[in-house]
Design brief:
alpha+beta; 3-stranded antiparallel beta sheet; 3 helices; binds zinc ion
Length: 83
């Protein structure tokens, strides 16, 4: 993900992102940003996520949908300016 203010890369796992789910500050420039989900990306990833779920079902059973859904959400996360 990239900061909308300074365009530097912000890790999904960075503390600033993990701390709160809504409004955060960029660790580089301090500009306030929020995480939004890109619906087109979710739409594109939905098929592969379903296929991954079906592929994992024999081993993971009820947890089979977790990796696909998590990957889909991570890929769809975008930073937007909250100002
Ligand atoms: Zn920034």
């Amino acid at each position: 993900m990239h900061c909308p203010h300074c365009n530097q890369s912000v890790s999904v796992l960075s503390r600033a992102i993990r701390r709160a789910v809504r409004i955060k500050a960029c660790p580089h420039c301090g500009g306030s940003v929020k995480v939004v989900f890109s619906w087109p990306v979710i739409a594109i990833c939905f098929g592969p996520a379903v296929l991954l779920t079906l592929a994992l079902r024999p081993w993971a059973d009820s947890f089979a949908s977790l990796p696909g859904v998590l990957a889909m959400l991570l890929l769809a996360m975008r930073l937007k300016s909250s100002e």
